[in-house]
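2024-03-11 09:14:02 INFO receiving multi-entity request
2024-03-11 09:14:02 INFO entity count = two
2024-03-11 09:14:03 INFO echoing inputs for audit
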Amino acid sequence: MRAGDFVADFPLPTIDGKTARVSDFAGQKLILIHFASW
Amino acid sequence: MPGWQAQFEPLRKAGKIRIVGIVQEQHAERARLYAQWRKIEWPILVDSLNLYGNSAVPIVMMVDEAGRIVRQKLGEFLAAKPVMRAAREQIALDPGVKAFLAGDLDGAISEFGKRGLAPNPISLFRLGVAFRARADSKGRKPRDAQTAVVMWEWALRLTPNQYIWRRRIQQYGPRLSKPYNFYGWVQQARTAIEKRGETPLPLTVEPRGAELMDRDLVVANALPDSDPERKITRDAGKLVDLECFVTPWTVAPGERVRVRLNLRPAAAEWNNEGQELSATLKGPGFRVVEGQLTHANRGSGLRTLECEVEIAADAKIGKLKIPGYALYDVCVKADGTCVYRRQEFTVTLNVSR
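2024-03-11 09:21:47 INFO inference complete, emitting structure
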């Protein structure tokens, strides 16, 4: 994903067992952090 | 991670930004425990299949109000005028991904596996994730854990710079193949959470063996051979379900692999007053160099044994079959009789230059 691209948008499970997609959080400035616990 | 929190939390609390995490991890609930430990209050999505295609983590992206990635200094990003929300394309998920996200692991394996004639690395990686997820579920099939490793290795051979995929193999692989202890933080987290007076969130799949292995910590080699004359009565897998897999599956002569044995009581329960569970690997073409193939009499569920095996420098190229057996003391559920039993297994791996 490059600058200017839309963030890819598809439903994913959340750690709380719900489902959400990045666009659910659109409308506000967003910091997207890709990480792992390892 | 704490560094990001320190940088972004004040902005989030001031309402200037939202934070969303996307975790690249096989086991979602480990990220949940991590979030509890670190007091992360923002939403975290789980991308086990690596749908975002990142080849490494961490990655921090600034995204404007419309959902577009921007490359700016943080101050400029925060000061920028709000952008109108734009129409964005909905990405259609492929049938394998849909099945996986719906919890249909058999369906996901079937869909990803359909691409067997024209394999691509992404499908192979995802196939491995689905096999591993099934290996960790009640619907597991005997070769699932091994097939996951084989698929991940295949994917990585085609895309060697994919460090997220590489981690999945390292997670179960030899001590020296991993850069650090991947899940050493789990115990630290539980202690800290309990100290706060909270209850740590449970893990459905507890990290074990290689997943907790410190690179610099050699576990003394304990390799009992308690039944060399094969006198103990066999259990064909009815009393205890035995699953074994090796990581990596493909190895060059002189290199190491890590062998894991998972034993789950089936028609029996562990006899915690009997002989300890033990296992042995015997045969030509390899030697066990470190590991603990005995297990203390504690608890009632899964018992894991692990060791590292060095393949002989003059090992033949091709399939290497390492025979072994496990000995255990169990009580049969049906009538409560306690018995000592032996179960044979074979670790198969691929020796290649």
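2024-03-11 09:21:48 INFO post-check: The radius of gyration of chain A is 11 Å.
2024-03-11 09:21:48 INFO post-check: The mean pLDDT of chain A is 89.
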